[in-house]
């Protein structure tokens, strides 16, 4: 009993030490002096309640746990169903089944919803690209947003200075990001995995700092605005076309509708995501794709079989960067404005969270996670202050409760039953 | 010799910042040495410790107790206690349940924790900078005058002295004490240490607490030096400290100290050469260069991978 009492007391004190100084006291600047005031009484009471609750919980946790286990067992997904859900074949059919509604839906939905869906698709694409690097090849990349920024600024700069259109710039942006990935990956990929994490993180920050400080070229913190939207074979979706161009509604004799542009952007994003999915799925069946996964599982075995780890890692890294470049140039086209602050570390964290939340390596999982991660904060607009707080807590809870992700990938395999 | 004075001044400034990086870096390197994970939330512990130090100083000054040693002692004590509580709780809540799985899982959890803590402070306090006046005004001038000489503030001297003491204490603790030996055993081989009867959970918790204490000391000292804090400061400080740890060879405590000093000096000279905006670029470029030439860091041991 006395040890339990001591544990309970310790835990309660811990809650107080963690919560009271930061939450219960507030620093305020009065004139030039800094003063400390108590937070609202409600906050103080809830801190006290939390400490008391912790104390009681630690005292009676054995009894409570016994009650809990007697009361209810968790309803679980039946084993067979779980197996079927995580097989690659099922996931592929799942994707195909989602495709038709995804194509038809925007014509009936509201403009805001379609716009949000476009954003989700951008993140899905980023997630799929990072999934190659992290989920398939097992390389931890914390600076993925750097390649995204390279893609976005490639289009923004080319359109600003040389007036090139979106469709010309899309492949250039992908190639530029891939080039950056190659140049960065070449020296670093020979190192241990954790060094890769910090070097990529540093790279992402360097890109952002350069974009912010090279004011003459990139416009500094203000970024580049007025980037052209994509056209459909030379038809723009604006109300009035620039010289030498025709408008979409004029060409087809339709009344002007500003929603057309949003739907068109959505469809491009959808096409890009499908292209990404297609390419990755093909690659996964090629020797290179098999090599990625083999490398993730066991690098030494790979070496022994005569695979060159550096080349394999580099290919995954470069390809992942390339998709980030595509996504970046589309992002620039959709926003019409790029600023360095769109590419901060938190974006990398969100994309990584999408990959891990989805279940590493699983493509349907990544798409599902992209929907969850972008939609949830949007739904929580009312608590917008608490958005990032909840996001952080969600990441931790998710890792504790379901570390394998929402829809983990599973290779077809046989199990021997005795 | 104004040129020489200028460079010496940069060296002193770099060493000041670098020694605090070193303190924070030890927290990263010890945790990494034992469980092989990057404790991303460590930078936030540093930030919270700075807030607590400021709260202690401001609170005591409001009560009229602005006796300098008392203020310092209170700031150190308060931020060390609270930072240790945070270090321990973070490990208990976000990392211990995840032990033994994929390496990425604790990292994501750590990123989540870092975002959570940053926003907790952002909401409870606010996003504006908080400033206190310098507690230890005055300088020591070496040379003819402030213009032609090296200026070392009393705060900087205090920083050097405290950090030297702390490093000495830590080295003695790790090399001489029973718990320190257990720490080293865990870093060598966690499983084997557990089999030999060491409570590995406790040792891991202890490393988090030690890291938090060092971060708190760094927080108080840097708070005195700069006098300004905000909720975003933890992120960059954390990344810099981690860079320092990698630079020196991650897992090695002397390496973290050396890496921190080196990074601080490189940053000071880099800022001098290329302008303040490119300070961070210099730091990261240095990291890439060192890793290219010496992939294990300056003092790191090459890791032999066994099947």
UniProtKB/TrEMBL annotation, chain A:
Of the GO CC terms on this record, one is:
plasma membrane
Which InterPro entries does the record match to this protein? ABC_transp_permease (IPR001851), LivHM_N (IPR021807), LivM-like (IPR043428)
Q: What is this protein called?
A: L-leucine ABC transporter membrane protein /L-isoleucine ABC transporter membrane protein /L-valine ABC transporter membrane protein
- Residue spans crossing the bilayer: 40-60, 93-110, 116-134, 139-158, 164-186, 193-211, 263-284, 305-331, 351-376, 388-404
Organism domain of life: Bacteria
GO molecular function ontology, one term from the record: branched-chain amino acid transmembrane transporter activity
Is Membrane tagged as a keyword? yes
- Protein's organism: Azotobacter chroococcum
The alphabetized UniProt keywords are:
Cell membrane, Membrane, Transmembrane, Transmembrane helix
Q: Which residues form the High-affinity branched-chain amino acid transport system permease LivHM N-terminal domain?
A: 4-105
Q: Where in the cell is it found?
A: Cell inner membrane
Topology of this chain in the membrane: Multi-pass membrane protein
Automatic annotation (TrEMBL), chain B:
Q: Which Pfam families does this entry report, sorted A to Z? A: BPD_transp_2
The biological process GO terms on file are: D-alanine transmembrane transport; L-alanine transport; L-isoleucine import across plasma membrane
Write down the superkingdom of origin: Bacteria
UniProt membrane topology term? Multi-pass membrane protein
Name the InterPro entries on file. ABC_transp_permease (IPR001851), BCAA_transport_permease (IPR052157)
Q: Where are the transmembrane segments?
A: 20-38, 45-64, 70-88, 151-174, 203-229, 241-269, 281-300
Gene Ontology MF annotations? L-isoleucine transmembrane transporter activity; L-leucine transmembrane transporter activity; L-phenylalanine transmembrane transporter activity; L-valine transmembrane transporter activity
Q: Does the keyword RNA-binding apply?
A: no
Q: Where is this chain's protein located in or outside the cell? A: Cell inner membrane
* One cellular component term from this protein's GO annotations in UniProt: plasma membrane
Keyword flag Membrane: yes
Q: Chief subcellular site?
A: membrane
Keywords from the named record: Amino-acid transport, Cell inner membrane, Cell membrane, Membrane, Transmembrane, Transmembrane helix, Transport
Family classification: Belongs to the binding-protein-dependent transport system permease family. LivHM subfamily.
Protein known as: L-leucine ABC transporter membrane protein /L-isoleucine ABC transporter membrane protein /L-valine ABC transporter membrane protein
């Amino acid at each position: 009993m006395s040890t339990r009492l001591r544990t309970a007391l310790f835990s309660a004190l811990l809650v107080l030490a963690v919560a009271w100084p930061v939450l219960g006291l507030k620093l305020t600047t009065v004139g030039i002096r800094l003063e400390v005031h108590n937070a609202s009484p409600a906050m103080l009471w809830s801190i006290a309640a939390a400490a008391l609750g912790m104390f009681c919980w630690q005292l009676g946790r054995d009894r409570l746990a016994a009650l809990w286990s007697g009361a209810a067992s968790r309803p679980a997904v039946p084993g067979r169903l779980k197996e079927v859900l995580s097989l690659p074949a099922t996931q592929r059919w799942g994707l195909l089944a989602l495709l038709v509604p995804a194509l038809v839906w925007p014509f009936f939905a509201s403009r805001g919803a379609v716009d949000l869906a476009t954003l989700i698709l951008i993140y899905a694409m980023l997630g799929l690209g990072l999934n190659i690097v992290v989920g398939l090849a097992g390389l931890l990349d914390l600076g993925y947003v750097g390649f995204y920024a390279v893609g976005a600024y490639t289009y923004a700069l080319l359109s600003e200075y040389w007036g090139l259109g979106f469709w010309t710039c899309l492949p250039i942006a992908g190639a530029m990001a891939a080039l950056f990935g190659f140049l960065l990956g070449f020296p670093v990929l020979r190192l241990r995995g954790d060094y890769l994490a910090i070097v990529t993180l540093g790279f992402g920050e360097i890109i952002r700092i350069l974009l912010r400080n090279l004011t003459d070229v990139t416009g500094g913190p203000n970024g580049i605005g007025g980037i052209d939207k994509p056209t459909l074979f030379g038809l723009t979706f604006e109300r009035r076309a620039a010289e030498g161009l025709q408008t979409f509604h004029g060409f087809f004799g339709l009344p002007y509708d500003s929603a057309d542009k949003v739907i068109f952007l959505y469809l491009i994003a959808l096409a890009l995501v499908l292209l990404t999915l297609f390419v990755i799925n093909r690659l996964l069946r090629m020797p290179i794709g098999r090599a990625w996964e083999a490398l993730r599982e066991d690098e030494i075995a790979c070496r022994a079989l005569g695979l060159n780890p550096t080349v394999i890692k580099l290919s995954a890294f470069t390809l992942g960067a390339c998709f980030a470049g595509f996504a970046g140039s589309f992002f620039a086209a959709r926003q019409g404005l790029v600023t360095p602050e769109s590419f901060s570390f938190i974006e990398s964290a969100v994309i990584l969270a999408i990959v891990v939340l989805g279940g590493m390596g699983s493509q349907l999982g990544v798409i599902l996670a992209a929907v969850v991660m972008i939609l949830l904060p949007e739904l929580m607009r009312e608590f917008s202050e608490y958005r990032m707080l909840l996001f952080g807590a969600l990441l931790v809870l998710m890792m504790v409760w379901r570390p394998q992700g929402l829809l983990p990938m599973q290779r077809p395999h046989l199990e021997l039953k005795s | 010799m104004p040129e020489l004075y200028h460079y010496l001044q940069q060296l002193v400034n770099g060493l000041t910042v670098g020694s605090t990086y070193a303190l924070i870096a030890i927290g990263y390197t010890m945790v990494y040495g034992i469980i092989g994970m990057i404790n991303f939330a460590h930078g936030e512990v540093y930030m919270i410790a700075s807030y607590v130090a400021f709260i202690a100083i401001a609170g005591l000054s409001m009560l009229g107790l602005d006796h300098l040693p008392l203020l310092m002692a209170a700031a150190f004590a308060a931020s060390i206690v609270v930072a240790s509580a945070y270090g321990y709780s973070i490990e208990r809540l976000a990392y211990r349940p995840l032990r033994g799985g994929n390496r990425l899982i604790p990292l994501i959890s750590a990123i989540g924790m870092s975002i959570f803590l940053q926003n907790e402070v952002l909401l409870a306090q606010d996003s504006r900078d908080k400033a206190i006046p310098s507690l230890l005004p005055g300088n020591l001038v070496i040379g003819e005058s402030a213009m032609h000489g090296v200026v070392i503030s009393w705060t900087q001297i205090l920083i050097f002295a405290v950090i030297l003491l702390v490093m000495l204490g830590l080295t003695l603790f790790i090399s001489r004490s029973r718990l320190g030996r257990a720490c080293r055993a865990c870093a060598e081989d966690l499983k084997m240490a557990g089999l030999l009867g060491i409570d590995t959970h406790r040792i891991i918790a202890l490393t988090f607490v030690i890291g938090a204490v060092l971060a708190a000391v760094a927080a108080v000292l840097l708070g005195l030096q700069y006098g300004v804090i905000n909720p975003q400061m933890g992120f960059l400080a954390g990344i810099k400290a981690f860079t320092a740890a990698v630079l020196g060879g991650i897992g090695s405590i002397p390496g973290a100290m050396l890496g921190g000093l080196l990074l601080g000096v490189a940053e000071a000279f880099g800022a001098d050469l290329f302008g303040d905006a490119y300070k961070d670029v210099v730091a990261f470029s240095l990291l890439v260069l060192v890793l290219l030439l010496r992939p294990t860091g300056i003092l790191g041991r090459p890791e032999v991978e066994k099947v």
